[in-house]
Each structure stands twice: as C-alpha cells, then as structure tokens.
Predict the structure.
Amino acid sequence: QKEVEQNSGPLSVPEGAIASLNCTYSDRGSQSFFWYRQYSGKSPELIMFIYSNGDKEDGRFTAQLNKASQYVSLLIRDSQPSDSATYLCAVGRYSTLTFGKGTMLLVSP
Amino acid sequence: EAGVAQSPRYKIIEKRQSVAFWCNPISGHATLYWYQQILGQGPKLLIQFQNNGVVDDSQLPKDRFSAERLKGVDSTLKIQPAKLEDSAVYLCASSLEAQGSGYTFGSGTRLTVV
C-alpha cells in the first residue's frame, strides 16, 4: 500500500514569513514528486514538480527532495494571504500519482 | 488551450439511485484519470485510462462503479446504486504523457447522496 503522509495542519504563519510544508512517502520506487494547491471548493492546481534529489526553485516556491529519507518539502517565501489554501503532496510511480491528505496553510495579514 | 471539462458541477441524489459524470480531457491528452476526493482527504485514484484502455482500476468499487472511455477521448463514470459514503467530489484529470509534468484537473463534480 503506497502511502503519502502530511500533517493536516493548519499551519499558521504571518504575512511575509516562510511557510514550510512537509511530506513523507512509503514507496521507495517513487519516481516523481508534485505539489498541488487547492483552494476551498476548487480543484487542485499544480505548483511544482521535482524528480531529482536537491532543491528546485520557482519564484517564491522551493521544492526539496531527499529520496534516501523519503521526504519532500515545499517552502513558500514571503507568504501572502492569497497563499492560504490546502497543499497536497503527490508522489508518482509510472503514470499514477498518489496524493496525501494535504496540509492547510493559513497566512494572516 | 481549453482545460478539462466536467459536468455536471453538482448533483444531489437519493441513496440507491444511479448517477453519471462526464469528462472531456484536454485535446491530445492520451491519459485520463478519475479521482474521488472525500471532504478533508486527498484525491484517491479510481481508474486510469491510456487512450481507451484501462491501465489501473484496482481501487474502483466494481460492484457499483463503472467507467468507460469510448474512442479514447470523452469518459463517463457511473455509480449504481449510490451509497451515502459516495458523497464526494469526483475529479477528472488528464495528462499528455505518462506523468510527465503532472496532471491537469477539471473543476470536479460534487456529489451529495442523501
């Protein structure tokens, strides 16, 4: 049974701070790793993906992957109230993604 | 590029009734997925199609759920008969290649079974 674990939160940060979201996965054969953002009542939208160990930066977002520890994280710099949403970690093997339950992020002005 | 289209957006039915959802993926996307997302949980894969063939339906409750993708484009997901625990958002997603850079989700169908 492939599992993707996330702390459900909420994670509360003040505006301008760095938000750190974490995810662990059980399948060592996992090949690709994704972060989706989901606003309440909306469908998930892709923020970032990462395939190799290390960091990948895109604007205010940085994804970090450590395959040895089976750990992936998302850092959001200069957090804005508009970043308040649920962040879903998804782990891929072949053509299928397995999602975690998501972490709710609340950014207060 | 048009996104993944789903209909209806909302559906309320009584338990033991049947319901069907429709999905039209992004043009040219060979892979189509149906996910079920229960409130407070992450999406759970129900079925994956590659063109019009089933790749993975291991988590589809086949005694009540069925899905088809005729001609490798549109897809329908049916529930018959519905149970209270089927209340969820049903998300359709498509991708150009196997995983690649991730899926694009449709807006979903929110099903309430009463």
Summary: Chain B has a mean pLDDT of 93. The CA atoms of residues 42 and 64 of chain B lie 22 Å apart.
